[in-house]
Design brief:
Blueprint: H1 2-17, E1 37-38, E2 57-63, E3 70-77, E4 83-93, E5 99-111, E6 116-122, E7 130-132, E8 143-155
Parallel strand pairs: 1-8, 7-8
Antiparallel strand pairs: 2-3, 3-6, 4-5, 4-8
Length: 163
């Protein structure tokens, strides 16, 4: 009788402890497919000085929360050859289109034709007061921003292809 009571008590404790756990990770990445706007997107011609087509690279899925020290996004190689070291001009603006910051970024990436890769760069927001408007709204007071980019260039590796 005493053993049965102990077994029932243990079974009750296991049943109470087996409640559904709280999920702390994001289940939906809503902006993972959202294409980032290009600066001077109307221009479809190849730049006569650099020979760069502005649509050789696509950026999408930008993510930067208020507490993040890095910005992450997906880069897609739309060319017919492998590329590396993508150089971008990134423009950060308020939701009212006021420019907050503009900078050049070199992304150390190696992409085969048609390949997409998630990359991360140091954030422009060193004080961690801004968050990307397409991501989750933070609990702390922070300012939303938008981002746009222009492709400045990339390298075409010569010789042995990267692994």
């Amino acid at each position: 009788m005493k053993n049965t009571l102990v077994i029932l008590l243990l079974a009750l404790m296991v049943a109470v402890g087996a409640q559904a756990r709280t999920r702390t990770t994001q289940s939906k990445l809503a902006n993972a497919k959202a294409v980032i706007e290009q600066i001077d997107a109307d221009s479809t011609a190849v730049d006569s000085i650099t020979g760069i087509n502005p649509h050789d690279i696509t950026m999408r899925g930008f993510s930067k929360r208020a507490g993040d020290s890095k910005e992450s996004f997906f880069l897609t190689n739309n060319t017919r050859h492998s590329i590396s070291h993508v150089r971008l001009l990134m423009r950060y603006s308020s939701l009212q289109d006021e420019v907050l910051h503009e900078r050049e970024v070199e992304v150390p990436v190696s992409l085969k034709p048609g390949e997409t890769q998630l990359v991360a760069v140091r954030s422009f927001d060193v004080q961690r007061l801004f968050y990307y408007y397409g991501g989750p709204q933070p609990r702390k007071v922070a300012t939303p921003f938008k981002v746009a980019f222009r492709l400045l260039g990339y390298d075409i590796p010569v010789g042995k292809p990267p692994r």
